[in-house]
Amino acid sequence: MSKLISGTTGEWEVVIGLEVHAQVTSNSKLFSGAATEFGAEPNTQVSLVDAAMPGMLPVINAYCVEQAVRTGLALDAQINLYSIFDRKNYFYADLPQGYQISQYKQPVVGEGIITLDLKDGETKEVGIERLHLEQDAGKSMHDQHPTMTYVDLNRSGVALMEIVSKPDMRSSEEAGAYLKKLRTILRYIGTCDGNMEQGSMRADVNVSVRKPGGPLGTRCEIKNVNSVRFVQQAIEYEARRQIDVIEDGGKIVQETRLYDVAAGVTRSMRSKEEAHDYRYFPDPDLLPLELDPAWVDKIKAGLPELPDEKKNRLMRDFGLSVYDAGVMVSEPEIGVYFEEVAKGRDPKQASNWVTGSLFAALNAKGVSITESPVTAANLGKLIDLIADNTISGRIAKDVFEIMVETGGDPAKIVEEKGLKQITDTGFIEGIVDKIIAENPGQVAQYDGGANPKVIGWFVGQVMKQSQGKANPAQVNELLKKKLG
Amino acid sequence: MSELTDLTIAGALSGLDKGEFTSRELTQAYIAEVENGRALNAFTTETPDKALEMADAADAARRSGDVGPLNGIPLAIKDLFCTKGVLTTASSHILHGFKPPYESSVTSNLWRDGAVMLGKVSLDEFAMGSSNETSFYGPVQNPWRTTDGKARVPGGSSGGSAAAVAAHLAAAATGTDTGGSIRQPASFCGLAGIKPTYGRCSRWGIIAFASSLDQAGPITRNVEDAAIMLRSMAGYDPKDSTSINTPVPDYRKALTGDIRGLKIGIPQEYRMEGTPPDVLALWDRGIQWMKDAGAQIVDISLPHTKYALATYYIVAPAEASSNLARYDGVRYGLREQGGNLIEMYENTRGAGFGEEVQRRILIGTYVLSAGYYDAYYLKAQKVRTLIAQDFEQAFGRVDAILTPTAPCSAFSPGEKSDDPISMYLNDVFTVPASLAGIPGMSVPAGICSAGLPLGLQILGRPFEEETVLKVGHVIEQAAAFGARPRIWWKEAA
């Protein structure tokens, strides 16, 4: 797969690094007991600490630390038993303290690895530079009043994990695969819901271009992009922009840019010279964070099966293809659903039903697998009905459609609608005889098997006559025998 | 009833116990003194109604047998402690009208033990100063004047606390000490004042100046009162991550008067050039008192002392520049409108912060800036570690250290206002202990040639406040400091 972009001076390579801000799944904030629920009325989830009232002090939420460590372990990363919280100082109306408590030089999690699943079963390893914990800011609302800005502090102090990749990605597809894989892992271990629309996951995208094999180019950072698609679009645009600037004899200026979703372009936000001097220093209100190795081991022992492990197992135990296994682990709930359907049944059948008819139905209805009208148990039963010749695969499709609409039990549907497969040889023979008698032309064409394709036409006729209920194998057998 | 206000805490508790008077009577006497003492400008907010209410509650509790260790004792609270529903200003205009909906942990502890609040007392704005002249509400007067009647500053930053206690407008007061803000005003006003070990008192609800240095402590008329007050103020608080979970002893029990065999260190580096002979003579007298009481005097060296002041004036402003960022006009306190957000910030902070606070924010912002951080802040942190190590090594050889509290007695109003460096130099003996986080106490020990009090400072190992109090108590006994300022403020009223 060519990842290079052509310009007027030849091929260019794009170099991408991502900083993902993932909201930690936790009932309370990083340094206060206030709630974190999404969508609450403005300023109803704000403690005295979150509002930075005079004399208020932060106290670390141990559960948020546990979640960060869990994430580090899932990324096969180094867990730093000693880390420091620093203050990142800047003024903004939705930053009540005038600083964000973050981790600067000594983060809680160090280097790790994430394996991307690319097209055609290809994989690629991308390095994780670090993961640190930090507070989110509040939200400024500029549309509430003609001249004033309103501030909602519900998000103020909510725990975020900033997960920084190494600049290891070389295409927008890889960046997309990275975000999807990271989101999958976070969902598996329950440390972030990965919901980009609600802002639970946001990405800062670092993009530079270079001639293949050449030194790294100057990078631009595109801030706060909130969907996989927009990240990919922003990279495409930004890489092309940088190539054009350089090829026109210009230079890339290191700067922060924003992606304008409507226009599909990135725009300069502030240059390096205008960049904030955050005056980081260790927060004197907080002691260094020291972790007990036994505690870390306990978290590690409690990790669920991770997507890569599960994928390998599905391939090994169920004989799934790389692609199908990848699909099954892309969301924890899909894997759970699939395993329930596949258990004790033909895994290929199970996989086909899940990735085929089920996904199509869910898509059409716009619901997720957890809201599926067809339960895994019922889909399993449907497959059983095919396996024991109660219904044909053709009828199964009809039964499935009914299940999607009613959520019903397939056996009952078959019973009520009289869709049970007909295996009575005498009955089938009657139809076969009738069709052969009525169509001498086709019989001649078949010519005792000289033209075997014609048998398909006969099968179709018999099935039509029996309203699809005749057992196809029996029909075939009888036709072959009768047509000689 | 003025004799009631002459009682120490211990004396008043005894009288209350015996039923000689009620807390209401005691409180009424103090309320009258607070009114008579307005010329001192010690109080920023008087809360007489609240005081009487609390006194009545204390009396009722006493009748029902629920007698806290400070039951019925009227106190002044430094206006850096947040007090629920009561104006809390840090003596700054930027907290204009701010009434916290919460009570600081230390004051909560005091009220839990039955104490009564007379009101809030002045300080240098945000506790930044050594003379209580930087308060937005005007300078506080020292009740002490020179023998020839000249006015003096009460010291700072807990100047309102010290003035109120010295003039008997309150039985005792809370203070906070970041670089000497309890000990220096105690010395200037002839009082006992202890800054306990960092982490001994909760900082929750105390308006932050420099988080790694700020500690609350009492300012009292004598060492015994300091022991009583500290016991109530101290204690672990899970809301302050730097609070230490170690039991609070009954400090009063440490005041045995027996220091035989105790090793007292005398640091040579504190014998600084230019220190007035009065101060040096008092120090020598203190050494003699120690010997007389059977302690052993050991010459020690604290080699990094000369860097302490410079280190302090990097670390404290750095933390302050960040701690004071929250006063931005957005959520509470003063707001001066502007055409946009930045203008609003500039107008609010320009109008809300006084000159000294602005100076320290600028210094702190500078020393944390990219390109200067390593040279200033990081280096200061390293020196701070060395200073702490100096003390650690010294405390391997001695049990306590004796030094002067301040390099002079109380100075004249305005004397150092135009020269910040000379003002900062006043903290030279108190700052090292703050940087090391160790307990330090000032005890009144003598009178200078101008007729003003002088204090001696006792430093101890972390969490060995008992040793500090014990030694301080012996000095107090030996010095027999019974002097009181001439009461001029009532004439002024």
The CATH topology of the domain at 2-256 and 471-492 in chain B is given as Amidase signature (AS) enzymes
Terminal Cα span of chain B = 18 Å
Overall residue-averaged pLDDT value of chain B? 97
Largest interface: A-B, 31 and 43 residues
Low-confidence stretches of chain B: none
Question: Into which percentage range does the β-strand content of chain B fall?
Answer: 5-15%
Radius of gyration of chain A: 30 Å
> For the record, what is the CATH homologous superfamily label of the domain at 2-256 and 471-492 in chain B?
Amidase signature (AS) domain
Query: Could you say which structural class the secondary elements and strand pairing of chain A correspond to?
Result: alpha+beta
Topology as H/E string of chain B? HHEHEHEHEHEEHEHEHHHHEHHEEHH
Morphology call of chain A: elongated
Give an overview of the whole structure.
The complex is a heterodimer of chains A (484) and B (493). Chain A is an alpha+beta fold. Chain A folds into three domains: 5-299, no CATH class; 305-417, no CATH class; 425-483, Arc Repressor Mutant, subunit A (Orthogonal Bundle), CATH 1.10.10. Chain A has helices spanning 62-74, 172-189, 228-247, 293-301, 307-318, 322-329, 332-342, 347-365, 376-387, 393-406, 410-417, 425-438, 440-446, 454-465, 472-483; strands at 5-7, 10-23, 82-83, 86-89, 99-102, 112-117, 123-135, 139-141, 150-152, 159-165, 201-210, 220-225, 255-260, 265-271, 281-282, 289-290. In chain A, the strands form four sheets. In chain A, strands 1, 2, 6, 7, 10, 11, 12, 13 and 14 form a nine-stranded mixed β-sheet that branches. A three-stranded antiparallel β-sheet of chain A has the order 5-4-15, with no helix packed on it. Chain A is elongated, with a radius of gyration of 30 Å. The two termini of chain A are 53 Å apart. The mean pLDDT of chain A is 93. Chain B is α/β, with parallel strands linked by helices and 493 residues long. Chain B has a domain at 2-256 and 471-492: Alpha-Beta Complex (Amidase signature (AS) enzymes). Chain B has 16 helices and eleven strands. Chain B has helices spanning 9-18, 23-36, 48-63, 105-112, 159-166, 183-188, 223-233, 277-292, 308-323, 341-352, 355-368, 374-394, 420-425, 431-436, 465-479, 489-492; strands at 43-46, 74-78, 116-121, 172-177, 192-195, 215-220, 263-267, 296-300, 400-404, 440-447, 453-460. In chain B, strands 1-3-2-4-6-5-10-11-9-7-8 form an eleven-stranded mixed β-sheet, sandwiched between helices. In chain B, helix 4 links the parallel strand 2 and strand 3. The longest helix of chain B has 21 residues, at 374-394. The two termini of chain B are 18 Å apart. The mean pLDDT of chain B is 97. Chain A binds chain B through residues 48, 51-60, 87, 89, 91-93, 96-99, 149, 151, 277, 279-281, 283-287, and chain B through 81-82, 88, 90, 95, 98, 100-102, 104, 203-208, 210-212, 238-242, 318-319, 321-322, 324-326, 328, 330-332, 341, 345, 365, 368-370, 373, 377.
